[in-house]
């Protein structure tokens, strides 16, 4: 998406990293770049406001559910493996089907 106006930082780059900005998972210098972009680009500011509202709504409605400790540990372990480059995205991962059964990629296709 682009608003069609020239900006120091392209709209596509802003929108590609919007959740990192919302979650404050980027350096302050990058946050400043986003804030400056929002001051001059109303379509991106509108998208930011919408995503911020959705995030607040989800937190209000779902933020009280406790996450099982083992699930949190598994997810954090997977994130660390991916960050370290030991696991390619999507390889050797298992999925959970709608009934809650764990399936591997090889067995998840039609048999």
From TrEMBL:
Residues 89-111 are annotated as: Disordered. Signal peptide: none annotated. Residues 11-44 form the Putative zinc-finger domain. InterPro entries: Anit_sigma_mycothiol_RsrA, Znf_put. It comes from the Bacteria. Residues 96-111 have a biased composition (Polar residues). This is Mycothiol system anti-sigma-R factor. It comes from Streptomyces fragilis.
């Amino acid at each position: 998406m682009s608003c069609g106006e020239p900006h120091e930082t392209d709209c596509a780059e802003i929108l590609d990293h919007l959740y990192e900005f919302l979650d404050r998972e980027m350096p302050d210098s990058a946050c400043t770049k986003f804030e400056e972009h929002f001051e001059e680009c109303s379509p991106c500011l509108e998208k930011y406001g919408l995503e911020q509202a959705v995030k607040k709504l989800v937190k209000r409605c779902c933020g009280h559910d406790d996450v099982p400790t083992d699930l949190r540990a598994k997810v954090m372990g997977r994130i660390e493996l991916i960050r370290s480059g030991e696991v390619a995205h999507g390889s050797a991962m298992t999925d959970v089907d709608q009934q809650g059964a764990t399936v591997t990629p090889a067995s998840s296709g039609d048999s």
